[in-house]
Amino acid sequence: MNQWxxxxxxxxxxxxxxxxxxxxxxxxxxxxxxxxxxCRAKGFSYRDMEAEDDVLLVVAETHCRYKSAAFxxxxxxxxxxxxxxxxxxxxxxxxxxxxxxxxxxxxGETVHIVTDSNKRVRTMPEKYRAKLLT
Amino acid sequence: MNQWxxxxxxxxxxxxxxxxxxxxxxxxxxxxxxxxxxCRAKGFSYRDMEAEDDVLLVVAETHCRYKSAAFxxxxxxxxxxxxxxxxxxxxxxxxxxxxxxxxxxxxGETVHIVTDSNKRVRTMPEKYRAKLLT
Amino acid sequence: MNQWxxxxxxxxxxxxxxxxxxxxxxxxxxxxxxxxxxCRAKGFSYRDMEAEDDVLLVVAETHCRYKSAAFxxxxxxxxxxxxxxxxxxxxxxxxxxxxxxxxxxxxGETVHIVTDSNKRVRTMPEKYRAKLLT
Amino acid sequence: MNQWxxxxxxxxxxxxxxxxxxxxxxxxxxxxxxxxxxCRAKGFSYRDMEAEDDVLLVVAETHCRYKSAAFxxxxxxxxxxxxxxxxxxxxxxxxxxxxxxxxxxxxGETVHIVTDSNKRVRTMPEKYRAKLLT
Lengths: 134, 134, 134, 134
Fold this sequence. Notes:
Four copies of one chain form a homotetramer.
Chain A: E1 5-10, H1 26-41, H2 46-53, E2 56-66, E3 75-86, E4 89-98, E5 104-115, H3 126-133
């Protein structure tokens, strides 16, 4: 089963803009934070995957649909799950929801290519692939 | 005719990440910088449109395809043009190219809804609509 | 007594730079996050103080000494306490420590002026002053 | 003679916060941008110094005094000059001024230690030292 993994995020003052809302570029950073926490929940560290096994998930595509504004100090839930997995790439799906009232803040997807630190496309090692898919 | 408008941007050190490339969230900020400069080139200031006429172009959707990495100190060209224009919304299209070698760095689109500062959808005033479309 | 209040922060990928460490500008954002959490711990929300009582703590000065690098996924503790309090201003002191090994990452101070939303200097309302000092 | 070197910067929408002004953390990024442009004006690239000669100017200390707010689309001048130069470190001084009316926005200093990419303190190579001081 492909279930959502959830991680909280608190909107920072520095993330707001003069419209009084969280600037839309931060959503990509929150998605990325979701990926980090997702990996940790799956039993490995994205940092170690990069440092020890030379596996990088390069961002090839991002897509975000902004449904409702998020405000300073809002406690948000970033929901993340695997979209598709191929031998040399994978995608993630996201939802961001405000905890206090359940408002859907955003939906999105990111597409990634597996490379080594020299930017050469490589195959995702089976140990990470297995963990991501459990 | 719907021609590209071009504006330069220099990759900042703070925009790089530990992969040694410009972090992908910055592309949305560069797109936005392109919109500011595009408006200025069309004869009005986005700042004044917001402050004087209460017209905001709220971001409803962003989409970016990352073609090649950008590096610290790279001089990039952000190319921007109008996609579609409706009475209460519009979209922009983008390309980012590295000047030194013409490499395509990214392509993207953003979709915007026209609102007032109270987040109510409104019609784009004719004076801005006319300028954007010339 | 002027005790440290502690709040955790996890270093994000987007906060790293090509040196492989957290970019130094983020420390000011972490300090600010510490102030938000400090206020919440003292029984009020910085957001409400701004929105309901028109009290802003404008940043007048920042000072940070970087002792050791912080890395992606590091779990840090931001320690914050009140420095000085005057009728129309106050300062905070900070330490940032890595939880895993107790390494001192940074020390700093920020100085703030109390204003209203029109940037006029004003006196800190007694209810906030009392809470900050308890 | 120790003269100011000047470089322009345009305040981005993403750099504003809900107070309607440029967020104070960006000033450190603008200082850094000033350092990049300063090096380029002195005849070398900070990127090449890092990549080719393994010379890094690690930030050891930052200090900024905020004099007046900067706003979206403001055209600012970042003024930078060398403070002190020692064998294994140096400091820079900064002023940020709004072009339109000459308002002093901020003053600051940064202190740097010269290291290699393994974070070992090293001596600044004479060729860079000479260029910085001309």
